[in-house]
Structure formats: structure tokens, C-alpha cells
Automatic annotation (TrEMBL):
<keyword id="KW-0449">Lipoprotein</keyword>
<dbReference type="InterPro" id="IPR046953">
    <property type="entry name" value="Spore_GerAC-like_C"/>
</dbReference>
<dbReference type="Pfam" id="PF05504">
    <property type="entry name" value="Spore_GerAC"/>
</dbReference>
<protein>
    <submittedName>
        <fullName>Uncharacterized protein</fullName>
    </submittedName>
</protein>
<keyword id="KW-0564">Palmitate</keyword>
<keyword id="KW-0732">Signal</keyword>
<dbReference type="GO" id="GO:0009847">
    <property type="term" value="P:spore germination"/>
</dbReference>
<feature type="domain" description="Spore germination GerAC-like C-terminal">
    <location>
        <begin position="235"/>
        <end position="381"/>
    </location>
</feature>
<feature type="domain" description="Spore germination protein N-terminal">
    <location>
        <begin position="31"/>
        <end position="207"/>
    </location>
</feature>
<dbReference type="InterPro" id="IPR038501">
    <property type="entry name" value="Spore_GerAC_C_sf"/>
</dbReference>
<dbReference type="InterPro" id="IPR057336">
    <property type="entry name" value="GerAC_N"/>
</dbReference>
<dbReference type="Pfam" id="PF25198">
    <property type="entry name" value="Spore_GerAC_N"/>
</dbReference>
<comment type="similarity">
    <text>Belongs to the GerABKC lipoprotein family.</text>
</comment>
<keyword id="KW-0309">Germination</keyword>
<keyword id="KW-0472">Membrane</keyword>
<dbReference type="GO" id="GO:0016020">
    <property type="term" value="C:membrane"/>
</dbReference>
<dbReference type="InterPro" id="IPR008844">
    <property type="entry name" value="Spore_GerAC-like"/>
</dbReference>
Amino acid sequence: MLTDKGRSELYRYKALWIGVILLAVLTGCWDEKEIGEIAYVTAIGIDYKDENYILYVQLLDFSNVAKQEGQKNSESAPLFVGKSSGKTFHEAVNNLYKTSQQPLNWGQIGSIIYSEAVLEKGIETIQQSIQRNPEFRFTPWMFGAKGSIEELFAVSGFFHLPPVYTIMYQPEDTYKVYSYIKPLRMYNFFSIYNAPGATAVLPSITVDKNAWRKFGTDEQPKKTLRINGGFQITEGKYQDWMSYEDLTGVRWVESKTNITPVKIIDNEKEIGIVEITSPSARIKLIGNEGEAKFEIKIKAKGIVADLREELNQSKIESLVKKQIKEEIRTTYQKGLEKNIDIYNLKNKLFRNGVNSEKLKKVQLSEDSLNKITVDFHLESSGILD
């Protein structure tokens, strides 16, 4: 049994140990940085010019973003774009530190943009350098750009909101209601990037200066971001760029297509719009690698969104089927003109047992896409009912 003196000594030791533990905890916290003391890189862009890699980084103040989520702001969120260069991507990153006024955090990157020049040069070494950075995640959205990356990074959202409220950071939100060219995350992109016979469509992003205007005390055009096409990369090598219009057929074979419009065209005249929801596609191999032919089967349903002339359901369905077939065929032919296997037909051969060496000898032609069948059902004639 403890005496009064013993209890006193025990309490003293307990107090001492509590003090030591608190001191250790507090000491660990003293090195922690506040959110405003760290420069968070939210997007990076890479260009290549005069044998140098040019790195652009976009910085956002996350404490300011948090405030703007809760209330409207009359001023645009502060935005900074840094620039550096080097003989390698890693050297460009190191050179950026020379002018950075705060520690750079690379763990919050939401978007990566490659210029056409750097795609032509090749992005393998850049990817390797990125993978070696332990802060980096594999979830950023990936884009290509023909124009100025610096100009892209200067575009903010509506209502003074920061760039995180644009399609550079949230492309899926728009894609769900208007599916055309599928946005790609880094891990999706690189799963296709080097696959035998596979072609990755890297969305092409640009600045639109005409679609929107800001009204009020300082009326002026509002710059916004737009997807205007795609860069085609086959087995790790850049092939060519295809425009938005040339890629209309890709949406019909893309499994993630949610809602997409198709024109009702009769006698070369556009007379309406049908909204297609969740089409499904199947690419079937007919023959072998010696004379490979393919059939694309599309199954879709939709509703009339707009109609300027009176047509019955059967006629609308017939015109929609024809339009979808034409879009698939036209995109395929546009791809062939640039030596691009836009529907990954060679990858289909690889998955059916054709090895990589034989795959290289396969030459696709217009006849390789042997047949396109479309099963379309108009669920509701909408304004006709």
C-alpha cells in the first residue's frame, strides 16, 4: 500500500511523463505548414522548343477557394502561373524552385497539358520523371494543346471562381450531359498508351474567346475552355491531330457515352435532333490477320429533342440509323488518311491472339471495316405525342 509520500512521488512522475509527451507532440507540430504557407501546384503544362522542355505550373490559393465555395466573391481568385525551362523535364522542375517563394506541393495536381511539340518529341521520359515523384498521383486529367499553355492557365471559371471550376479540372460533369470526346485520367491514358495496336485519343483543349460575354460595369468577352479535337497516340508514338468534327464517330463505340445528340438529316437538310442515351457497341472480328475484316454493331435508344418537320417514328429511326453509320464510317476514313486506327481494330486482333510482330504487318483499308449495323429505337417521339 502506497504511503502519502509514495503517492506524491507517483503523481510527480505522471506529471513529468505527460509533460514529455506533450512536448514531443507540440515539437512535431511546430514544423507543420499552414495551408497558405505552401504553394500548391494544381496543373502543369509541358512544351518543347529549341531543344528545351518548357514547364508551366498553375498555383491556386486553396484557402481562398474554400472561402469562395461558401460565398460569392466580387473579385477573381488570385492565380499564379510559373514558367521554367531545362534540357530535361527534371531540370525544368529544379529550375522552377530557383524562383519559387514557397515550398511547392505536387500532390494536388488536377490536370496535365502536353503541347503538340512535346507529343511529337515523346513523353516517355517525362512520365518516368513524374512517376519518381512520391507526391504525385495518377488521377490528373490529361489534355493536349495546339495553342498557348500559358493562355489556357489564365482562364478562370464563371462568377470569379478559380480555374478548378472549369473543364480543365472537371471535364466529366459536362461529358455526362454532352458526351463527345471522352476525358482521360492519367491512369486511363497510360493503360492504352503502350498497348499493342491501341490508339489513345488525348483530348485537345483550347481557349474560346467568342461564345460567352461578361456583362455589367466592365462588359467584355469571357474566355472559356473548349475541347476542339484529339491527339492520336498509337503504341506510344504521336500520329496526328483530328478535329472535333472528324471524331464524331468515336462516341458511338465509347462505352462511357452517356447522352449525345445526333442530327436528323433528310435530303441533306437538318430538320431535328435526337438525344441518344447510353449507346452500346460491339466490334466483331471477321476473318484473320491475313485478311482481317471487322463489323461494328451499335445498339441505341433516344428521344426527339427538336423537330422542324413532321415525320413518323419509323422515318426518324431510319434517318438516325443512317446518320450514325455515316459518322462511324467517315471518322474511320478520316483516320485512315492519317494512318490512324481510330477504333483500335488492331488491338482487337491482338486480343484475339495475333502477336505484336504480326500486328505490325497488318494494313488496314476502307474495306477492313466491312459492315456497320445500327439497332436504334425511338423511345418517345416527344413533341409528336
